[in-house]
Write a structure and sequence with these properties.
This protein is mainly beta and about 650 residues long. The protein has three helices and 40 strands.
């Protein structure tokens, strides 16, 4: 075991870390007493404003990782509440760490501060969001707060907590609301929509965290997919003064006038009554240029587009806004007239790459489709050509007008499996292959972007990707983007609405009670494994360097009677939506979507360690190093009452 005095200090900061100094949210290396290493923080969701998910912490390496043990656990203690008809959903939090304190959010949209060394709770703030009741189709969850330094008040730290309908500013030292912010520390997030909101359940601002640029805090939004009604609110992004709470601007994800960008791509002026196109995924900031980047989602509803003919820009797009004004700088639509729920939940990654000898400040967007779109982050010009290619357009859904082409990047190649044919049938045994082929013949099969059908289209990637909100990790040292993907199909079946569902007034829908992720053989997937991958993409060359399965796979599959006696792969792959981190120690840490936290060697993708978790994990990982020189790796696990924040660290002798 290393003595703390022998641990290497981090080397030169990455460009993203230097940018963070400008924003006063830095990966701070604090001087500490002789013989101790320096503190390395995790001050924003994604580690840096650019969303790299990279840490300079290097105590844990491929050689020392075997010494990782659970150092402490913390439980959020939230329970189902009959009086509000609520249940805490998945514990998806990624804590932030500044100056030895962790800032954690809970499924019920509350905030807590913990000692970063011990996990001891320091304070707790109850937002009251649970009193609004259930969120149809999504449930209560929260991924992180944001932090901001008030340079006019002694550089004191504030916690910015977005909830279902409100934005709170808290004193980071005490957890108490800041009276100078809004009204008694809170401002409304729901009074700027261009259409009236008849039910507070129609909006949810509490999943992904805000982002901060200088003294401006930016918040996204979500209208739950379960609502499929005319005149639903559009997704919006709002900018607020971080000190006073004054709203500075609002950007709409669906045009609100004939002169707005994209209005001409909504045939029959259908922008007038369509909603959603949410901005529910995490956002990232170029804090040198004052630009914010995010993805938009599908307009309502996800699988039936007859009430919104046209391409529907800027829905399902990567968008760049000027933070000072909220004005669109550029956008690129990655799905035209979406019918697959291929929204863009993954946060973009701001990267600097060298392509054919030219240095480019770029933005890379990984998608549910399994693509990586790469653009010059200032101009929006693609780094490699993006081709509009014909896709299947024959639909048996009355009134549907499928868009005839979709944008395919020529580089990098897809990191997820795309489309389904009989050749993809599960072949773990001859009997299973025969059964799988017979079952596959019940569905419509075809390449990526095969449209939904009344019969049921087996769609791959499914509606959860590919990549999801966990996003990708960027390592400037190697020029590689690391991304986790899932290879799970969805039965994209559209059926006529019978008028009995109060949440649906569309003629057709794919969000009905018998909605399912794709057929199985009594618990065995129809398609051959693996069902989850970790890929390394060289963004200087546009190539995939390596790709390996993630996770050992479901015990249900391994113990299935049809597989008794069969020799199975060591890693079937465990699907999950969360992402990981990459460190200067040479490791990628990622939850497997099963009962383990995994470590992979970032150079070649070899699994070098796995740690048992108390509950399944599919959430984002984070890491930091305290003043004692100890590196911790944290991951949230579980859901509802069976949930815990788990901290791993290397074994050390008692002082």
């Amino acid at each position: 075991m290393k003595n703390p005095s022998s641990i290497n200090t981090p080397g030169q900061q990455t460009p993203g870390q230097r940018l963070g100094v400008i924003a006063c949210l830095v990966v701070t290396c604090l001087a500490t007493p002789q013989g101790q290493s320096r503190q390395i923080e995790w001050p924003v969701y994604g580690g840096e404003p650019s969303g790299s998910k990279y840490s300079a912490a290097d105590e844990v390496t491929p050689r020392t990782v075997v010494g990782l043990r659970i150092a402490w656990q913390w439980e959020h203690r939230e329970r189902p509440l009959k009086e509000y008809n609520t249940t805490p959903f998945r514990f998806e939090n990624q804590p932030l760490m500044v100056d030895g304190v962790l800032y954690v959010t809970t499924p019920y949209n509350n905030a807590t501060a913990l000692d970063a060394e011990t996990g001891k709770e320091l304070w707790r703030f109850d937002s009251g969001a649970v009193k609004l009741g259930e969120i149809p189709g999504t449930g209560f969850k929260h991924r992180a707060p944001a932090l901001w330094r008030d340079t006019q008040d002694g550089n004191k730290l504030r916690v910015l907590l977005n909830t279902r309908t409100e934005l709170h500013s808290l004193d980071a030292a005490t957890g108490r609301p800041m009276p100078s912010f809004g009204r008694d520390g809170v401002v409304s997030l729901v009074d700027a929509y261009p259409r009236p909101i008849s039910d507070v359940r129609h909006v949810n601002h509490g999943a992904s965290p805000p982002v901060v640029y200088r003294d401006i805090v930016i918040v996204g939004s979500s209208v739950p997919d379960r609502y499929q009604l005319a005149n639903e609110p559009p997704g919006i992004v709002q900018g607020f003064d971080a000190r006073t709470g004054k709203r500075l601007w609002v950007w709409n994800a669906i045009p609100q006038s004939p002169t707005d960008y994209g209005a001409d791509t909504w045939e029959e002026a259908s922008w007038r009554f369509n909603g959603h196109a949410n901005v529910w995924g995490p956002m990232v900031v170029d804090d040198t240029r004052g630009l914010v980047y995010f993805g938009t989602s599908t307009p309502g509803n996800d699988y039936y587009g007859a009430r919104r003919p046209g391409k529907n820009e800027p829905a399902e797009s990567l968008v760049c806004l000027d933070i000072a004004t909220g004005q669109r700088k550029w956008s690129f639509q990655v799905v035209h007239h979406g019918l697959w729920d291929f929204d863009n939940p993954a946060p973009p990654n701001l990267v600097t790459i060298t392509v054919d000898g030219r240095r480019i400040d770029a933005v890379a967007q990984v998608t549910k489709q399994g693509f990586t779109y790469v653009f010059d982050r200032v101009t929006g010009i693609p780094v490699w050509p993006i081709e509009e290619r014909p896709v299947p357009t024959d639909s048996d859904v009355p009134g549907e007008k499928v868009w005839p082409t979709q944008p395919f990047p020529t580089k990098p190649p897809p990191f997820a499996r795309q489309g389904v044919s009989l050749d993809d049938a599960n072949d773990l045994t001859p009997e299973i292959k025969e059964l799988a082929i017979a079952e596959l013949k019940k569905y419509r099969l075809g390449p990526l972007f095969t449209p939904p059908s009344l019969r049921g289209t087996l769609q791959l990637p499914g509606n959860e990707g590919g990549a999801n909100w966990g996003g990708a990790m960027w390592d400037a040292q190697t020029g590689r983007l690391y991304v986790r993907s899932k290879d799970v199909p969805r039965n994209n079946r559209v059926v006529a609405s019978d008028g009995t569902d109060k949440y649906i007034d569309h003629a057709y829908s794919g969000h009905l009670p018998f909605d399912n992720p794709g057929g199985t053989l009594g618990g065995i997937p129809l398609l051959k494994p693996p069902y989850a991958h970790l890929s390394a993409i060289d963004l200087n060359k546009g190539d995939i360097v390596w790709q390996v399965p993630v996770g050992e796979g479901s015990r249900v599959i391994r113990n299935h009677r049809l597989l008794k006696g069969a020799k199975l792969p060591d890693r079937l792959g465990s699907p999950a939506n969360g992402g990981g981190i990459v460190t200067a120690g040479g490791l990628i840490f990622i939850g497997g979507g099963d009962g383990y936290l995994y470590a992979f060697n970032k150079s070649d993708g070899r699994e070098v360690w796995r740690g048992q978790l108390p509950y399944p994990n599919g959430e984002n990982v984070m890491t930091y190093r305290t003043r004692t020189g100890r590196q911790f790796i944290l991951v949230s696990t579980g859901a509802s009452v069976d949930a815990a924040l788990v901290a791993f660290a290397l074994d050390r002798p008692a002082p």
